[in-house]
Amino acid sequence: MIHPLADNLSQKSDLELDEALSELTNKFFQTRNPEAQSQISLMIDTYRLELSDRQVKARLDDSSNKDLDNLINIS
User: Where are the domains of the chain?
Assistant: First the structure.
């Protein structure tokens, strides 16, 4: 589930996402408020989903660039 108040994460760099994820994880363990932990957990999931989507897209881009004609050498 994506947090409704999350910014447009596609405009952030991977480093910014990693830093925000680290900060949110620290805040999650610092608070004892279950409602706050629930909201922070949603944000953490949103950031992780964005990072995962980026990794999948990068893998698909890498695999689509490999053409079978270049791999098979018939002489």
Answer: 13-54
Closest CA to 23 of 6, 7, 47, 5: 47
Angle ∠(68,57,4) on CA atoms, nearest 5 = 165
pLDDT per residue as tens, the chain (75 positions): 666 667 778 888 999 999 999 999 999 999 999 999 999 999 999 999 999 999 999 888 776 655 555 666 666
Closest CA to 51 of 18, 19, 27, 3: 18
The pTM score is 0.74
Give Cα 68 distance to the centre of its chain.
30
